[in-house]
Amino acid sequence: MFSLKRREEVIRVSFSAITCHACPVKELCTKRQNSKGRILTLSPQPISEARLRRRTEQDTPAFQQRYTLRAGIEGSISEGIRSHGLRRARYRGQPKTQLQAKAIAAAINLIRIRQMLQRTSLGLSPRPKRPLSPFARLRSLLAAGSLSCACLITHNYFLHPSWLGPPV
After folding, report:
1. d(CA 65, CA 5)
2. Helices 61-84 and 94-121 meet at what angle, rounded to 10?
3. DSSP state letter for 128
4. 3-state secondary structure of 149
5. Position 83 pLDDT exceeds 70
6. Contacts of residue 30, Cβ cutoff 8 Å, sequence gap at least 6
7. Tens digit of each residue's pLDDT (9 = 90 or more) over 93-102
8. What is the DSSP string of 19-87?
9. Whole-angstrom distance, CA of residue 52 vs CA of residue 86
10. pTM of the full predicted structure?
11. Which of helix, strand or coil describes residue 12?
12. CA distance linking residue 20 with residue 67, whole number of Å
């Protein structure tokens, strides 16, 4: 069955409720009403292959070097939007809007300098340790043997092999 999702053609695969109820690992699947089966939404093969090529390209050193610039600024932009109103301009006109953005950037820098000085005065590292990403947590579960790749495939967790790291 083909349907349009965000103007993209997708393939929807439906499983009957009887099939889902008989599955030995149904507790690990996503939750849905008991009277209904599972529905998978898949992209057509050309789109899936293009995504796979893009994900493979993301593993190259050249891509990672280019992405470093973007990754370095995304946290600052996110903080500016979430905490300091960067998304909404308070004034009309490009010069005043640019001045507001620069003032917010300066405020973010001052806040970070203050936090860094506070942490170093307490004998801590200047930057706090970042929490593990969901993929890093998944990787550690796989390394510890708490999860298996077969379990991930059975439950429709389509992951790029490089996200999981070297074979365990």
Report:
1. 33
2. 100
3. P
4. helix
5. yes
6. 38
7. 999 999 999 9
8. HHHH-TTGGGSPP--TTS--EEEE--HHHHHHHHHHHHHTTSHHHHHHHHHHHHHHHHHHHHHHHH-TT
9. 35
10. 0.47
11. strand
12. 41
Q: Which residues contact 66 (CB under 8 A, 6 or more apart)?
A: none
Q: Which two tokens stand for residue 81?
A: 């939007």
Q: What amino acid occupies position 98? A: Q
% of the chain at pLDDT higher than 90: 27
Q: Tokens 């893009």 identify what position?
A: 54
pLDDT of residue 93: 93
- 29-50 core/surface letters (b: 16 or more CB in 10 A; e: else): eeeeeeeeebeeeeeeeeeeee
Of 11-15, 33-37, 110-114, 132-136, the range with the lowest mean pLDDT is: 33-37
